Amino acid sequence: MTVEDLRVPGAVPRGRNTTPEPGAPREESRVAAAAAELVASLTAEPWGQVSVSVYETGRLVSLAPWLTGHAERVRFLLAAQRPDGGWGAPGGYALVPTLAAVEALAAELGRVPGASGTPFADEAAVGGAVRRGLAALRRWAGTETGAGRGGDPRVPYDLRELPDMPAVELIVPDLLARLNGHLAALGEGEPLPPPRGMNGGKLALVRTGLAAGAAVPQKMLHALEVAAEAASKAPGVVPTPLREGRAAAIGASPAAGAAWLGGPGEDSPVRHYLEAVVDRYAGPVPCAAPVTVFERGWTLSWLRRAGVPVTVPEELTAGLAAAIGPGGVAAGPGLPPDADTTSVGLYTLALLRAPREPDALWAYETETHFCTWQGEEGASPTVNAHVLDAFGEYLRLAGTGGRNARYAAATGKLSAWLRGRQLPDGSWLDRWHVSPYYATACCALALGEYGGAESADAVRGATRWLLDTQREDGSWGRWTGTAEETAYALQTLLLTPAALPATEEAPAEATTGATAGATAGATAGAAEEAVEQERRAAAVERGHRRLLTMVTGFGEPLDRPALWHDKDLYYPAAIVRAAVLGALHLARRHRP
Fold it and tell me: Is there a contact between 269 and 248 (Cβ–Cβ < 8 Å)?
């Protein structure tokens, strides 16, 4: 696996000089200046700074060839194809974007000039990409001549082995049906089989309900494109107006909006939304837009938690406070409110010394933990870590007495649940991010700050896992060392409590028998802790040096792999840069 395999074409951040100009201020001053610029960008680019998506862009190529920027979207798909014929990240993460890209390009091949859009001029390039993509899909499925189940062990074609991505059980059957239809029309061989264990039963129920005018669960709107013709002007779907302009979104998703619109149609608010997204990203599109509250909460909380000296305009603080209603706040227009965006927003307000009582989060409490939204299948450690942050910081400012006793009790419940989700090696995994370094940072930081003394062993286990998994070059990462994951590791090492203090020496006269044994144990424990502290300091030093080579002089990662979960993986540029700047600030202050 190389860095090139993970690079995301069309990522949002703008490049700058890799090294500061001669005479530039010291590192901490550059971090402060970069943080100020980053905070200003949150106002200047309110829709969010996220990478474009192969999946979402492919859906627009297939569903809306009439939309401005069609040729640019086709070019993007062609440029993003991997040498092995697939699209996307390694392993099961490649299945959805590869299906979407091949389906979109196959639809392009079957288009008649002058019909609903102008086919891409370079038919040979499109055809070649389709054939290479099909070969990859057949290889992964084990249906290619001479191929077996292990044709490509990096990409398991089995439902049980696919990543836990939103709506994957609906998206894959829909794309397979569409693609197999194109294959029959193009004469491109046998139809592709579904992944083992997956069928279209749930998708059929969704389509039947939509066609009958049934109300649609709000979380379903984000993937409305799977409903095919039943999505077009579905009576149970109401577009969500955006705060500015005439635009309205369907589930904060360009693909969902195109499916609901059904065609170029009239002067519709949903078409205005599509044109606005396409214009902002010059053709290709992200999975979700706008993501204003999500981006502002995560960006400001990473900066504030690390103590980066930055002034946050009142406009941002007031906007964040106004967005959080009695039921919480959603990540984007048309999405359901969720505990993750709500808790990070509340935690950020508390860090900005504009705390609000986090009572909106009670709507997400279950018997054992807090759900991301009502009806969630599964559970998320990082969501619960963020709720713990929100409750813990609120209690720090407001105290634990009176009505706040319920929040204090909940912090104990959350802490115990998080400790129970820790893996034996000391790490955590989560459904909203590829990397265990993100999940471990969220959980260890929350437990270290608000989890009490009973969480000390869990935090110590997390830091030991970080020390054990640092790469030879000083970085951290799941597939390869990345600036993002290295930043999470450094923040965890620098913000979690150090090893527990050594036990005080026993009085000299009490050094016989059991007391002598206890004293010897305490001495050995103190020596072990001293070694661990030395390892931690050395790891931070190596990690800091390596991180400086992975970013520009202004803290922007040179490579920007998509590691965050949506229908496709994506890269939230502002959020990642905030984590990197926080790590640089902390590491620089840690150095002698």
Answer: yes
* pLDDT the model gives residue 91: 87
Could you give phi then psi for residue 263, rounded to 5 degrees?
170, 180
The closest of 176, 239, 247, 236 to 211, measured between CA atoms, is: 236
List Cα–Cα distances, 396 to 44, 219, 402, 589, in angstroms: 33, 34, 14, 25
Buried/exposed code over 502-527 (b: 16+ C-beta within 10 A; e: otherwise) = eeeeeeeeeeeeeeeeebeeeeeebe
The pLDDT of 246-275, averaged and rounded, is 93
Helix (H) or strand (E) holding 564: strand 564-565
Q: Which residues contact 115 (CB under 8 A, 6 or more apart)?
A: none
Centre a 10 Å sphere on the Cβ of residue 464 and count the other Cβ atoms it contains: 16
Collect all residues with Cβ–Cβ distance below 8 Å to 131 and sequence separation of at least 6: 188
CA distances from 508 to 503, 519, 520 (A): 14, 10, 13
Tell me: the pLDDT tens digits for 277-297?
Answer: 999 999 999 999 999 999 999
CB 368 within 8 Å of CB 410: no
What one-character DSSP code corresponds to residue 569? E
Mean pLDDT of all residues belonging to the chain: 87
Q: What are phi and psi of 317, to 5 degrees?
A: -60, -45
Closest CA to 484 of 376, 380, 572: 572
Residue 332 φ then ψ, to 5°: -155, 165
Q: Report the pLDDT value the prediction gives residue 329, as an integer from 0 to 100.
A: 97
Cis peptide before 557 (omega within 30 of 0): no
Is residue 497 helix, strand or coil? Answer: coil
Is the sign of the CA dihedral 363, 369, 371, 375 positive or negative?
A: negative
Contacting residues for 215 by C-beta, under 8 A, at least 6 apart: 236
